[in-house]
């Protein structure tokens, strides 16, 4: 790859993608406002002491934690850990949210059909 090609390829990328403990902690607390440690541990299998360090912003996930975190929370957890990540991650988070909203919409429409059928 020529140096010109390298410059074009990397020009839209942030200088450095850095993790943010505060953003990650806020994400977990938002997902589980009550009993955060319990719920994160029960869903991901991560040790409670580790989750407590995340919530206290004293540590960030290690590589072995990313699989369970992404499997449970999707790409939005990656965005919480790396808020200045490239645009492709924003796109993945948007697609995830659209899928969630589509599922909720389908459930609401199903419930409306059921209630309409019972009422009429």
Q: Low-confidence segments, ≥5 residues, pLDDT <50?
A: none
Shape: flat
* Count of strand segments: 0
Average the pLDDT over all residues and give the rounded result.
Answer: 89
SSE pattern, N- to C-terminal: HHHHHHH
Biggest sheet statistics:
none
Share in β-strands: under 5%
Output the radius of gyration: 19 Å
End-to-end C-alpha gap: 68 Å
**How many separate helices?**
7
Helical content band:
over 70%
Q: Helix- and strand-based class?
A: mainly alpha
Topology (SSEs and partners):
Blueprint: H1 3-10, H2 21-31, H3 36-44, H4 48-55, H5 63-73, H6 75-81, H7 87-119
Helix pairs in contact: 3-4, 5-6, 6-7
Spell out the key features of this protein.
120 residues; mainly alpha; 7 helices; 72% helix
In short:
This protein has 120 residues and is an all-alpha fold.
Explain what you see.
The protein is mainly alpha-helical and 120 residues long. The protein has 7 helices and no strands.
């Amino acid at each position: 790859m020529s140096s010109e090609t390298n410059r074009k390829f990397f020009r839209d990328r942030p200088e450095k993608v850095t993790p943010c403990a505060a953003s990650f902690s806020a994400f977990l607390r938002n997902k589980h406002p009550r009993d955060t440690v319990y719920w994160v541990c029960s869903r991901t299998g991560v040790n409670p002491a580790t989750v407590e360090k995340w919530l206290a912003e004293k540590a960030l996930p290690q590589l072995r934690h990313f699989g369970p975190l992404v499997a449970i929370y999707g790409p939005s957890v990656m965005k919480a850990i790396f808020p200045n990540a490239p645009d492709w991650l924003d796109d993945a988070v948007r697609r995830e949210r659209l899928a969630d909203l589509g599922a909720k919409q389908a459930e609401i429409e199903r419930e409306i059909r059921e209630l309409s059928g019972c009422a009429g």
